[in-house]
Amino acid sequence: MSETKQDRHGQRPRSIRRQLGIAAVEFALLAIVFFMFVFSMLEVTRAVYLFNTLQEITRRAATDAANSAFDPASTEAVRRRAMFSDADGNLILGFPVTPAHLKIDYLSVTGGASSSTLGMQIISALPSCPAENATNCLTDPYGASCIRLVQVRICQPTEGDECAAVPYQSVFPFIDLSMVTLPRATTIVPAQTMGNRPGASACE
Questions:
Q1: Is the pTM of this model over 0.70?
Q2: Which residue of 9, 33, 97, 176 lies most exposed, with the fewest beta carbons within 10 A?
Q3: 36 vs 24: CA distance, rounded Å
Q4: Degrees, nearest 5: CA angle 52-55-60
């Protein structure tokens, strides 16, 4: 009776061992391609989620800021509340976006009733408190110290009025998307209470 599975020394024939080796190499190559495809699909799915979520984050922040005070502590709280956040206040699956990437600007309206065109301008020197802003707007709604609009954008955390695009950062380091930047999702809403309390007439 001939031996087909093993030779007389208890080992498989050389041809079978060679086929098993080739199969192992082929499996390894196919596994690399397969997992690269899976990880790429996961990265693309995350990118689509992030791009769609950023606009909603700016909307939430702008709506909240329109009814909140504009001191540093209040604006930081607005940024954190806008995130669909984890324990640290960062966007879940949204790396590198953090609350610091939400740039909140307070805008005045220029032009006035005598002008045929209206414009928007970032207020560089904010009123001392919400009550003072309410007084400024009653006195001159087109003045440079009257907050009429709130603008929120996704920017690199830098000082000044510039809004630099945020580079996209991949979860999987072997997928290079360094040339992609996150959209500067922007929301502008009319100012509401701005944290002013009824009856408040002076800055405390």
A1: yes
A2: 9
A3: 18
A4: 125
Measured distance CA(88)–CA(90) in Å, rounded: 6
For 76-80, the CB contacts below 8 A with 24+ separation are 78/102, 78/104, 79/104
N- to C-terminal Cα distance for the chain?
A: 103
| Cα–Cα separations (whole angstroms), residue 154 to 16, 21, 33, 91 | 60, 53, 35, 13
Distances (CA, A) of 45 to 17, 38, 41, 42, 53: 42, 11, 6, 5, 12
Distance CA 119, CA 138 (A): 19
**What does the pLDDT look like over 102-155, one tens digit per residue?**
999 999 998 876 667 889 999 989 999 999 999 999 999 999 999 999 999 999
Measured CA angle at 194 (ends 94, 92), to 5 deg: 10
Cα 112 from Cα 150, distance rounded (Å): 18
> Counting every residue, how long is the chain?
204
Give the distance between the most distant pair of CA atoms in the chain. 109
Over residues 44-98, the pLDDT tens digits come to 899 999 999 999 999 999 999 999 999 999 999 999 999 987 667 788 888 889 9
Q: Is the peptide bond before 173 cis (omega within 30 degrees of 0)?
A: no
pLDDT value at 6 more than 60 = no
